[in-house]
Amino acid sequence: MRPVAGSPAGNDHGARILKVDHAGEHGAVNLYSGQISMARFTAPGMVDELKEFRAHEQRHRALFGAELARRGRARCRSCRLCGIGGRALGLVTGLLGAGAISATTVAVESVVLRHLENQLPALQGNDPAAVAAISAIVAEERQHHDRSARHIQGDTFWSRLLSPVVSGFTEAVIWLGMRL
């Protein structure tokens, strides 16, 4: 797809951020889908919450996808990688149970929130459409983080093990996406 003349697609930084955010939302949809598949057996009490989180992520992905389409931009090259990685992480952590599911969500959302909160001032005044799209999802991402954090009682095994691994993986995927 080519940017439309005179469209906000000329703002390459905003478009790049939106592409990576879209890919991240695709990864999140797949993460929750994988967790739901396994949680049916390992943490059935979490399935409804995970379905709610996935519905939010589907809406976020659609919002970013629509903004990319409006700009005449294709999705990020890392989108497929995010989907595969998200599904794999979801299946593994879902298999490990409620503690691993919650620890993974907290780790992912901590990184995502930090990036979103850094993106807003970087785009403020330069790309109002990107600011609006990003601002529209921050509250739900925070809700995912906070609700999952409440499931974790203190410093659990899964939090100590998964937090640095999942956070590092999430950072690496964002870094890669910004460069592809």
Overall shape: globular
Please report the distance between the alpha carbons of the first and last residues: 16 Å
Multimeric state: single chain
- How much strand? under 5%
Q: Which percent range fits the helix content?
A: over 70%
The assigned structural class equals: mainly alpha
Number of DSSP helical runs: 6
- Count every beta strand, where a strand is a DSSP E run of 2 or more residues: 0
| Run of helices and strands | HHHHHH
- Give the low-confidence spans: 1-10
| Alpha carbon gyration radius | 16 Å
Largest sheet: none
Mean pLDDT value: 92
Describe this structure as you would to a colleague:
- The protein is mostly helical and 180 residues long.
- It contains 6 helices and no strands.
- It has helices at 12-42, 47-71, 79-96, 98-123, 128-151, 157-179.
- It is globular.
- The two termini are 16 Å apart.
- Residues 1-10 have low confidence and may be disordered.
How does the SSE layout of this entry go?
Blueprint: H1 12-42, H2 47-71, H3 79-96, H4 98-123, H5 128-151, H6 157-179
Helix pairs in contact: 1-2, 1-3, 1-4, 1-6, 2-5, 3-4, 4-5, 4-6
Please sum up the structure shown:
With 180 residues, this protein is an all-alpha fold. It has helices spanning 12-42, 47-71, 79-96, 98-123, 128-151, 157-179.
